[in-house]
Amino acid sequence: MGILLTRDTIDNTAHDPARPQELITGGYDFTTLTDKVCGIVERRGAPRAWWVALGFMASLAAMMFGMIGYLIYKGIGIWGVNNPVGWGFAIVNFVFWVGIGHAGTLISAILYLLRQQWRTSINRFAEAMTIFAVVCAGIFPGIHVGRVWVVWWLFPLPNFQAMWPNFRSPLLWDVFAVGTYATVSLLFWYTGMVPDLATLRDRATTKVRRIAYGFFALGWRGSNRHWHRYEKAYLILAGLATPLVLSVHSVVSFDFATSQIPGWHTTIFPPYFVAGAIFSGFAMVMTCLIPAREWYGLKNIVTLYHLETMAKIILATGTMVGYAYATEFFIAWYGGNPAEQFAFVNRAFGPYAWAYWIMVSCNVVSPQLFWFKKIRTSPAALLVVCIFVNIGMWFERFVITVTSLSRDFLPAAWGYYRPTAIDILTFVGSFGLFFTLVLLFMRFLPMIAMAEVKTVMPQKHWEDKVSRPVGDYHGTNPGDR
Amino acid sequence: MATRETPGLYGYLAEFREPWDLIDAAAKVRDAGYTRWDCHTPFPLHGLDGAMGIRGTRLPWLVLCGGLAGLTLALLMQWWMNAHDYPFLISGKPLFGLPAAVPVTFELTVLLSALTTFFGMWALNLLPQHHHPLFNSERFRRATSDRFFISIEARDPLFRGEGTREFLAGLGADAVEPVED
Question: What is this model's ipTM?
Answer without folding.
Answer: 0.94
